[in-house]
Amino acid sequence: MGIQFASTLKKLRTEKNLSQRELANKMYVTRSTIARWENGSRLPDITMITRLSQCLDENINTLLNAASESDEVPYVILVDDTKITLTGGLPVLEDVLPNASVIGFTRPSEAIEFARAHRVAMAFLDIELGKLSGFDVCNSLLEINPRTNIVYVTAYSDYSLDAWNTGACGFMLKPITAEEVREQLRKLRYPFNHGGLL
Question: Which domains does the chain have, with CATH numbers?
Answer without folding.
Answer: 3-66 (1.10.260.40), 75-185 (3.40.50.2300)
